[in-house]
Amino acid sequence: MPTDQWHLIPLAIALPLSAVLLAILVRRATVYLLLGILLLMSANAVGLTWLVSSQGPKTYYMGGWEPPLGIVLYADGLSALLILMTTIVGFAAGLYALRYFPTKTDDEDATHRKNHFWPLWMFLLAAMSALFLSRDIFNIYITLELMGLAAVSLVALAGEPVALRASMRYLLVSMAGSLFYLVGVALIYANFGVLDLPAIRAVINQSPAAIIALSLMTVGLMMKTALFPFHFWLPPAHANAPTPVSAVLSGLVIKASFYLLVRLWFQGFDIFLTPIIMIIMGAMGAMAILWGAFHALKQERVKLLIAYSTVAQLGYLFLLFPLIKSGEASKLAWSGVFIFVLAHAFAKAALFLAAGNILKAYGHDRISDLGEMNRYIPVTVFAFGLAGLSLVGLPPTGGFIAKWLMIRSAILGEQWWCAVLIAGGGLLAAGYILRVISRAFRTVPDIPRPKPLSPLTEWTALGLALLALGLGFTGVYTLDLLQAGTPEFILNLAGGIP
Amino acid sequence: MLQPSTLYSLTAVVLFCMGCYSLLTYSHLLRKILGVNVMGVGVFMLLIARAYAGEGQQSDPVPQALVLTGIVVAVCATALALNLAVQIEATTHKADLAEDEENNGNAN
Amino acid sequence: MEFLKTLFDLILISTMVWVAWQALTARALFKSIVLFIAFGLLISLAWVRLNAPDIALAEAAIGSGLTGALLLSALGRMRGMERGWVKQTRKDRSMKNTSVWLQKTIVSTPPSTFLRGLERLSLRILTLVLAIILFWAILSLPETSPGLTEKAIEALPNSGVKNPVTAILLNIRGYDTLLEVAILLLAAVGVWAFSRSTIRKFSNPHNDILLAFVCLILPIMIIVSGYLVWIGADHPGGAFQAGAILGSAGVLWLLSEIRRTDQSLIWLQRIGASFGLAIFLLIALVMMAIGSNFLEYPPKLAKQLILIIEIAATISIGIILASLFLGAHPGSEGDPLPVEETYEDADNQEPQ
């Protein structure tokens, strides 16, 4: 076991789990304590990020046992950054949740449910931290289940029948996806006897069992990441969940399974990464972009619009695969896609929080019945607009940096269709964002005056949107960070894949 | 071919596929949940069958630990799923997922 | 001898598959669930056959027993059933309307137009293709897989226990188990979120046979549970199996209503359920604080630490599993509805 082990790594998981215990046992003044823990988690994440950027990627042997017998955690630029993203968005949405749930209500059931929000929230954050650090394919399954069950329970907290049904559908898809993934794990272990990704990479060969295992794992993870054509469960679940939950689901949870796909394909099974596979993944991503954007344009409710937008934005992520063609292009693609992940997390969470504000203020979120929002909830409108800018990909936001890198990569690698798609998708996004923003300035007669909003809810939405903007300015530093631990596959693509 | 390992592995596949089919075909929630459970048993059987090392030999303990964990996780997921199903049935008086309610409702 | 063993395998496997098929396609849900429980027991047999006794214990207690109890409880709670099981009686025509309605909600729903013939056929083909692909994968696997058995046996002396499965579960891959205990607690919280502040009462308070049985069996179950935890270090057994027995004891206790439940039990539930994760996490962090790694147990202390963790986990698992069974009470107290219904028409309908 290497001598200098960074204890920050397991702390990233131990802190939220302790928060869970606190939330269950202590209850009353806990909320502020919990926010304190969230701050601690962010500090931990920042520390980890700094360590990785100065000293490179690092492993941590859980229990002191060496692989392949023991479980190893791995922190590189990518996982540190994603954990940072998780803690920041988790903190912001958590702040929002403070004022979101109605404190005095006659609905006893709703009050009872809301009391269970914080433990579930912390479980979700713990699961994601564990997932981003894991390198053992069975441990990944456990973190996936923890994350999925926490997410499903949080969606169900909304209590409405439509939310319950959406939660049930989500749960069934999640369970099925996990089981497909687990079959893959079983086949891999049966064939090679190891569960640690780098160990797998060392012994893998082109056996039928390996190919089939990888396919099943991929299908399972695609189901969980709602890639077209497995996207059907996402819009109802994300739209009908309580607002802070929607923010975290679209911003963070959905990226986790994508991250796992990347880890599997690039750092365990990269011998299977053939041009055909890349094209197929890219094609599915393209379908997602078009289908999602098209449906977002048709939606009548703001939250559903944003949910379909998530389906579309996920498609961009899968363009990573066809863009990995030759040396420089693949480095650009890698950076671009993961900055996209970050920017989208901030922007989408901001959008959902803003939508939640609209819903609270007006009592509904039907687009055609909204009006004069800039007069009553200007901060929210500004947050929505700013986040929308990042989503569309206009400078100087983080979304712009991400798309610009991806387009450059597409041009360098001569994947013209990707470039067109990325640019076109931005136009479509502008379309559906404008649908909502235009209502902000429209004067509509007979609109009942909206209820006043708590400033916290408005400013957290704006805060996240500002982060998406800030990403545009600090993009350079993020780029450097992402290089730490970039898979050799990317770095060594000299001649490139024809 | 008739090694216990292979026999039980193939059985595992049959169970997995039966469970999968059940999940996809039936609309009643309880049947879906049953289907998922049978799928789970199938995967576990695959792991344990391959862990079998022969008469009197120590079976590979790692898959055994994995399956033990898996069984507990499965029961947790089942409990949550059943809980949800009961809630759905109580509020909507139907125990299946209607396909038409995606855009309904004014939930927050 | 070999032939006899293979014969046994074939008989067991065919029975398993047949029971599973029957369970999945039975028209009455009650029948499905009971067959599923039987299926679980057959699976436990298979685990014993495959030299996995720890798993057999867990499967029988958790996978078959508790899951079956959860399923039956859920079925019972679905409209009109105050009891956890269904009586089958002959009813005359006058009750037919009510019973048909009950049937529809409990047994099967009207044929949905969701799956037409073509869709059903394509699903069948897809599943068949999946089965063939997996068959191919399995048949291409090497005779004996390179496993981690040797490495595990090597590490055994340093792990503090003699049972390799316990060593892996509680020490070498203890991190997985930590997350698993977290998942258990998560399930409990998820279920609590939907239960009201009053604990649900079962409406079968004066069943003398049940009471007598419970008074007899409860202490035995608690002792067996303790024994399983203790013995798990060197022989098949351990925290999860013991916790499942404890949980079943809890379920029986709840069902028999020996004692009326009240508010204070809620706090007991919370503390008891969190106890396992708390101890596990605490020990892991303490180890980290004194210079070892997170979850690293020095070989001299390992046995004791594992025992402490297992005991805490057993208590928690027992309480959590009983809580899961206690489950959610949707909305208001259930309406009392006639408990008898008939299954005359059940057999004539397609399973939904």
The average pLDDT value of chain C, as a whole number, equals 80
The neighbouring-strand order within the major sheet of chain A is: 1-2
Report the biggest beta sheet of chain C as strand number plus sense, adding barrel if it closes.
Answer: 2 strands, parallel
Structural class of chain C: mainly alpha
Provide the succession of SSEs of chain C.
HHHEHHHHHHHHHE
Count the E strands of chain A.
2
Q: What fraction of the residues of chain A are assigned to beta strands by DSSP?
A: under 5%
What is the tally of helical segments of chain C? Answer: 12
Which regions of chain C have little confidence, pLDDT < 50, spanning 5+ residues?
80-114, 329-352
The percent of residues in helical segments of chain C reads 55-70%
> Tell me, what's the shape of chain A?
globular
Output the helix-strand order of chain A: HHEEHHHHHHHHHHHHHHHHHHH
**Span between termini of chain C:** 45 Å
Mean pLDDT of chain A: 88
Output the strand order for the largest sheet of chain C. 1-2
Number of helical regions of chain A: 21
How is the quaternary structure best described? heterotrimer
Number of strands of chain C: 2
Radius of gyration of CA atoms of chain C, rounded to a whole number: 24 Å
Task: Describe the overall structure.
- The complex is a heterotrimer of chains A (498), B (108) and C (352).
- Chain A is mostly helical and 498 residues long.
- Chain A has a domain at 274-498.
- Chain A is built from 21 helices and 2 strands.
- Chain A has a two-stranded antiparallel ribbon.
- In chain A, α2 packs antiparallel against α3, α6 (137-156) runs antiparallel to α7 (161-192) and α18 packs parallel to α20 (455-483).
- Residues 494-498 of chain A have low confidence and may be disordered.
- With 108 residues, chain B is mainly alpha-helical.
- Chain B has one domain: Helix Hairpins (Orthogonal Bundle).
- Chain B is elongated.
- Chain C has 352 residues and is mainly alpha-helical.
- Chain C folds into 3 domains: 1-107; 114-138; 153-332, no CATH class.
- In chain C, strands 1-2 form a two-stranded parallel ribbon.
- Chain C is globular.
- At the A-C interface, α1, α4, α5, α6 and α7 of A face α5, α6, α8 and α11 of C.
